[in-house]
């Protein structure tokens, strides 16, 4: 027995840590019964390898494995708190290249997370009680390996039957983790990353290409209302950092949170059922979708994984039409690999941090006030007509530069993430009001279509309790939560011809096709819909969830809901077909990226 103290500790402690993590990310439907065996099987792999070593080496090997797995759990836990997703290899590549946004991560880590490392301080002292001399046969290691392969095969097969394509596409990493444990998820991620790298080299079948082309051609709107109505006008698109829909037309103690946007809405087309669709690529996913109408990458960010691809982007389409094109953002040019991607998208000018006087810093960087003020001069110097894409920054998580946002009384939300966010977005709203006034005075407003939208949520899932305070509610259902994931889309037309509240279910994928119709741009590889000529209200998420009319499918728990009543509904043949077509569309988009299909099809 004393020869195996390290093995006993390992086989007890590691599954406990993995079960605790599983409960932390999925307290609603956590079940030890369904998770214990796949988790033990995932741990046995390390034991099988360890038993091939001499006892002294085995002790060190198992100790290091314990340390690595514990650190991985802490990273996964904090990543989940913000992104509600599980880290994958492409994301790790991102974060190395991104230089993770320090303040965001720091504000998420809890001291209790380090309890995952507590045993590692004690285990070295146990080593002296071990009997390292006993010779151990290799046979048990082989038996263990067979046992864990058989156990895992059973659970992997069951999941692949229940959720076809899930293990190969990993469209829903949370579901895999909740079903198989986080270690098995990482094994699958490592396998898929290697397979995809190799697979990308393999040619795509002609049938798959024609399926994709058929989908894209059928996806074009038959109607062409307002086609080319704004050809020759400028397009100014403003992506507002973390502008979440719940602040629009909301007040605290009678004071509007976003008075300037509320005013803009009155003279614009306002889409009040517009949702963000970002995945691991965060802000870069938002701008990738609005400028390309292709879905985010399965894992990681397109801006890193496919930066060498050819894209049929909106700035490229405008440039080919004789427009000047510019992107403006007061932060590091290489953040999210933008300097590479914007060149690839044919933004002829990219005014990044170095193009602005850094005269006022708020949060991550240049203040929205200074950025927007300085941007007016840059727009004035663009050749007309132009497409200009501006990205704000001051209302970036964790909104902790509160003294710089001006005074806005948030009542009982003071000193909470929600209260700080409201102050920050109120500040940004003020700067946007100033910016729009200056556009008006310079005459640009009358000669431009303004598109303004939020890139993604502001309040992460692990802070949903703040909405109970904000709305004075006692609970938040799954349907309440998805409805809170709206961001505003406001389109202001120079002639005010189109204005009103548009309830069409829509998302970031739909902006480019909508602009292509209004400005008469070619529509070659778009997967979204033209919002002024579409009746189907479908929104697809990277993890396979979707909203379609009145239905909401939540892939995290494989459940359908009625969006009106919030009640769960059983899967019908129609709903299963919808779910399959959603996975097809995601796969088409992935194939376009993986095989650089736009380049191939353009060359044809
Ligand atoms: C920085 C800003 C932040 O450039 O776009 O990106 P995010 O952290 O929100 O993805
Ligand atoms: Mn963002």
UniProtKB/TrEMBL annotation:
Active site location: 283
Binding site for Mn(2+): 241, 283, 455-456
GO MF annotation: an example: metal ion binding
InterPro entries with a match to the protein in the record: Alkaline_phosphatase_core_sf (IPR017850), LtaS-like (IPR012160), OpgB/LTA_synthase_biosynth (IPR050448), Sulfatase_N (IPR000917)
Domain of life: Bacteria
Residues annotated to bind substrate: 396
Pathway, per record: Cell wall biogenesis; lipoteichoic acid biosynthesis
Gene3D superfamilies found in the cross-reference section: 3.30.1120.170, Alkaline Phosphatase, subunit A
Membrane-spanning residues: 7-23, 35-54, 61-80, 139-157
GO CC terms: plasma membrane
Residue intervals of the Sulfatase N-terminal domain: 233-520
One Pfam family recorded for the sequence: Sulfatase
Keyword terms of this UniProt record: Cell membrane, Manganese, Membrane, Metal-binding, Transmembrane, Transmembrane helix
Membrane topology value: Multi-pass membrane protein
Principal localisation: membrane
Subcellular location, record wording: Cell membrane
Family from the record: Belongs to the LTA synthase family.
PANTHER family: LIPOTEICHOIC ACID SYNTHASE, PHOSPHOGLYCEROL TRANSFERASE I
Protein name according to UniProt: Lipoteichoic acid synthase LtaS Type IVa
Organism of origin: Clostridium tyrobutyricum DIVETGP
Taxonomic placement: Bacteria, Bacillati, Bacillota, Clostridia, Eubacteriales
């Amino acid at each position: 027995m004393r020869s195996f103290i390290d093995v006993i500790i390992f086989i007890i402690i590691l599954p406990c840590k993995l079960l605790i993590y599983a409960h932390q990310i999925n307290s609603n439907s956590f079940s030890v019964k369904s998770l214990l065996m796949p988790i033990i099987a995932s741990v046995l792999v390390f034991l099988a390898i360890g038993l091939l070593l001499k006892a002294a080496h085995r002790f060190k090997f198992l100790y290091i494995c314990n340390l690595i797995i514990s650190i991985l759990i802490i990273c996964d836990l904090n990543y989940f708190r913000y992104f509600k997703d599980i880290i994958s290899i492409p994301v790790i590549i991102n974060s190395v290249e991104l230089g993770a946004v320090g303040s965001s991560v720091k504000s998420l880590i809890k001291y209790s997370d380090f309890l995952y490392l507590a045993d590692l301080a004690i285990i070295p002292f146990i080593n002296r009680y071990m009997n390292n001399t006993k010779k151990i046969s290799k046979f048990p290691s082989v038996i263990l390996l067979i046992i864990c392969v058989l156990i895992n095969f059973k659970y992997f097969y069951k999941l692949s039957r229940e959720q076809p394509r899930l293990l190969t596409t990993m469209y829903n990493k949370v579901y895999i983790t909740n079903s198989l444990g986080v270690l098995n998820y990482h094994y699958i991620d490592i396998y898929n990353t290697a397979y995809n790298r190799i697979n990308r080299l393999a040619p795509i079948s002609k049938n798959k290409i024609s399926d994709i082309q058929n989908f894209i051609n059928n996806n074009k709107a038959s109607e062409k209302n307002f086609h080319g109505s704004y050809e020759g006008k400028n397009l100014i698109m403003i992506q507002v950092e973390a502008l979440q829909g719940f602040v629009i037309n909301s007040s605290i103690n009678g004071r509007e949170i976003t008075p300037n946007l509320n005013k803009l809405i009155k003279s614009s087309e306002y889409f009040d059922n517009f949702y963000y669709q970002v995945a691991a690529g965060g802000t870069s996913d938002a701008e990738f979708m609005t400028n390309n109408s292709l879905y985010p990458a399965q894992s990681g960010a397109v801006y890193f994984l496919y930066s060498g691809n050819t894209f049929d982007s909106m700035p490229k389409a405008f440039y080919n039409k004789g427009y000047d094109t510019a992107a403006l953002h007061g932060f590091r040019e290489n953040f999210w690999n933008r300097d590479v991607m914007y060149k690839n998208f044919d933004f002829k000018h990219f005014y990044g941090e170095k193009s602005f006087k850094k005269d006022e810093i708020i949060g991550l960087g240049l203040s929205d006030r200074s950025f927007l003020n300085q941007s007016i001069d840059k727009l004035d110097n663009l050749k007309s007509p132009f497409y200009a894409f501006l990205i704000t920054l001051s209302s970036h998580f964790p909104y902790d530069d509160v003294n710089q946002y001006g005074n806005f009384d948030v009542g009982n939300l003071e000193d909470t993430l929600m209260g700080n966010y409201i102050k920050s977005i109120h500040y940004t709203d003020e700067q946007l009001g100033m910016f729009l006034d200056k556009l008006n005075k310079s005459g640009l407003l009358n000669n431009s279509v303004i598109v303004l939208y939020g890139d993604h949520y502001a309040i992460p899932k692990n802070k949903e309790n703040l909405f109970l305070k904000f709305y004075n509610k006692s609970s938040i259902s799954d349907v309440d939560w998805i409805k809170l994931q709206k961001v505003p889309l406001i389109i202001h037309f120079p002639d005010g011809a189109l204005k009103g509240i548009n309830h069409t279910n829509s998302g970031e994928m739909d902006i480019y096709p909508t602009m292509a119709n209004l400005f008469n741009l070619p529509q070659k590889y778009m997967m979204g819909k033209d919002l002024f000529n579409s009746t189907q209200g479908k929104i697809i998420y990277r993890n396979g969830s979707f909203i379609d009319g009145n239905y909401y499918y939540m892939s995290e728990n494989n459940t359908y809901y009625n969006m009106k009543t919030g009640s769960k509904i059983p899967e019908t043949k129609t709903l299963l077909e919808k779910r399959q077509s959603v996975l097809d569309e995601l796969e088409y988009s992935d194939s376009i990226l993986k095989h650089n299909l736009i380049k191939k099809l353009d060359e044809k």
